[in-house]
Amino acid sequence: MTRSNEEPSGELSILGYPILAWLIFFVAAPLILVVILSFLSRGEYGGIEWHLTFDNYRRVFQPIYLNIFGRSLELSTVTALLCLLIAYPVAWAMASANPKVRTFYVIALAIPFMTNLIIRVYAIKIFVGMDGPLQWFLHFLHIPFDPYALTQNTVLVFYGMVTSYLPFMVFPLYAALEKFDFLLVEAAQDLGASNFKILFGVIVPNTRVAALNSFTLVFIPCLGEFVIPDLLGGAKSMLAGNLITEQFLKVRDWPFGAALSVILIILLLGAPLVLRKIFLGSIHGVAA
Amino acid sequence: MLRVVNISKNFGNQTNALKSVSLNVNSGEFFSLLGPSGCGKTTLLRIIAGFETASTGELYWNDQRVDVIRPQSRPFNMVFQRYALFPHLTVFENVAFGLRVKRVDTRSMKDRVENALNLVGLWSQRDRLPETLSGGQAQRIALARAIVNEPKILLLDEPLSALDQKMREYMQTELRELQQRLGITFIFVTHDQEEALALSDRIGVMNDGNLEQVATPEELYERPNTHFVAHFVGSMGSIRGSAVDHQSLQLPNGQVIRGNLGRVEPGLTAEAFIRPEKVRLSKIVVGATKLSGDGLRFDRGEGVNKVRGKVLNMAFKGLHYELHLGIGPDQRLRALVPPEKMKFGISIGESVTAQFSPTDTFIFNCPSGMA
Amino acid sequence: MKARPRAPFWAFGILFGVLFVLYLPVIVMVVSSVLTRTDHWVLTLQWYRLVVHDRELIDALIRSLEVGFASSFISTLVGGFAAIALVKSKFRFVKPVEALSFLSLVVPELVFALSLLSWFFVLRVQLSLITVILAHITFSLCFVLMTVNGRLAALDMTIEDAARDLGATEWRILRTVTLPLIMTSMLAGFLLAFLLSFDDFLITFFTCGVGSDTLPIRLYAAMKSGLTPQLSALATLMLAFTVALIFLLKRARGLKIFGQM
Predict the structure, then answer these.
(1) What average pLDDT values come out for chain A (288 residues) when binned by 10 residues?
(2) CATH code for the domain of A101
(3) Per CATH, domain C55-258 is 1.10.3720.10
(4) Is A43 contained in some domain?
(5) Which of B264, B321, C20, C67 has an alpha carbon within 20 to 30 A of C4's alpha carbon?
(6) How far C259 CA sits from the closest chain A CA (Å)?
(7) Chain A residues 4-33 with a CB less than 8 Å from chain B
(8) B161: nearest Cα among B44, B217, B78, B82
(9) What's the complex ipTM?
């Protein structure tokens, strides 16, 4: 038997249709298009020709491109690991502070996080650039250096990546630690555990899901990062993001760029699964 | 009169939140639905209000079918457990909300709001926001907001449970008086048996989606109909054994206890519930079962139940002492003894005899899964 | 609440270290924007004067603000009302909406940007400020949705039952009860969307046409050709604007998505 008042607030559901339409038209459709694009071929003047081919994917597996993907994976993994290593103590310190100070820390970390990436990169360039404090300091100490190598190198890329993505790691961990039962820490202290033991024996096992999620949250955007390596890494450190951007904006080989993007997405979808296996699997074994 | 006919409710995969409940509530009656959390009492109330739809069954108000009407249009109003006052509206606007919806003209709306707020004694607080009110005040505003609409039935969902003990007792009196003054039917959901006994004209005891017994407070207390009601209402002590015939059970030590309702299935586990204030105690003197001459009155009649036990615990509760007697392993009997009768001095660890009449003893088979 | 056991001092050391490293370049940038070298370093506002008098920069700023206002206004409307449908009604497509907005969050910004670029190309839409606005709405929708959702989920549902009980229709409840109660979170959603739009580089970079570049694009292009104190002044101004928005957002309790405060 159906009754007219079965769904008392069913009428409000029309408010949901605009977003559904929008997301289908501007998220789903464009992504599907990229997949289709990756099976097409490049036209004479950078256009698209509508005939099917697997050539783009075959090209992806050439050593130069595989190398670039390999380096991107490496960079992302190292960045995410560094972030994790730094974020745990940071989140722990934040969560254990008193509530007023806690708010201060959250804002202090949110400000650079929400500031334009270009501005942050710009600030870094000022810092290491000509007339910048770092070069001045090295001069002062009479340490010889190459001023050009100093402004574009891998260390800077790591620095830029870690400082940009650290909040992605800190905030979820902080949120998890907010809900964490600190009596466990007291109990561990009472039983004589050292602070390292508390961190790795009590806090980490109890927040490992948040850790895994935030690891993924850092790993994914790192893999597609384009601005930081472009501005801080120089020509030598071509990464997946730069390669794809180049295909779209300079070389104008969209089908190949699309194929590279699809591979990137596959890596992104696959990585969390692999991570989950390694990460939750191993820690689970220890905790259980 | 409100008629609940064979109402049942299934929530998704959890079936039988209500199992075919039927019930009549008379006009002008203070009716309570009593039961532990999860028994289905709030679900039933929300079905009456219209916030939930029954899976099967019907609901009638004076022969008009109401379960097909939207909650907005039912002549009932509800007082919510945590008040549910609109936090962005003043006290006045909260109470006026229902009248504004019904487009009552401004003049009579103001009069009615003033009346309702005067009724709960809070007209002076009309411009305040809910967050500045105390729990008791908020509860009374919630009451005023409901009764200003002159509902045929007022539904109250554990309205006093968020208040502290003192305020709760005060509000119980207020509620009862308000109900008598207005003459509106109240359906009151509570898990507090004392509250239900004190306030209601009639009580429906619910357990696990079933309506176990509907009766006046006195009947419920004097003559519980089911194992659950005996267990839940009146905090009786109990002893278990196995049923030997339709009205007696045998303890593991061989003693037989008789009850007043001949409904027990012989051979199965049974539990005897005994009103603690009806239990009389006497000391056991070694060598002879001499009764201590302390002025206690004993029925020497054949039918009196007698069990021996050891005093395990003793607590002074103001009006009386509460004693726990160990009868056997995991078997405890409660007894309430007035202070003047404690003069003969029972102490913890002593062996005593407990006597109680079969008319104060209720024996039921234990529900399966409990034995 | 009982005080929690303090983290060890080295954890605090790392926290302060991180804050130091995060802020040091920014501070250097701000300082460099008010200094000029003649014989020695002198305080000056000349770089700011240059920025203010740069017609092209001001045009870019105006475009940034236009994009910010238009996109956050629309995404607040669409996203905010969608949150109501998702939480309050039996909307049939909750799962698809959740999945797609999650997708828009996890797909790398770069892929997101180039997919929109290709989409506009296939649809033969000329890249312009309009395409930038469409792109910005798309990526900020999910954030508005999350912000308003959080508030709605925390709302006591019985308040709406109470309004229903008093005879109000669904639309009246929405207007007189729900909307007033989620207004601050709608505002927070708007500010967050504005902030994201104002700061966005990559997606704008892919979807803007000739002459429709925003401030961050300008800054990027200028940076490619070298650093000047004028750029520091511009970056400092943008930073100040962002920080101001963040504090507004905090007032509107929009920072909750970062954790309990």
Answers:
(1) 44 89 95 92 76 86 89 89 92 87 87 82 83 82 79 85 87 84 80 80 82 84 84 77 87 89 86 71 44
(2) 1.10.3720.10
(3) yes
(4) yes
(5) C20
(6) 5
(7) 4-6, 8
(8) B82
(9) 0.87
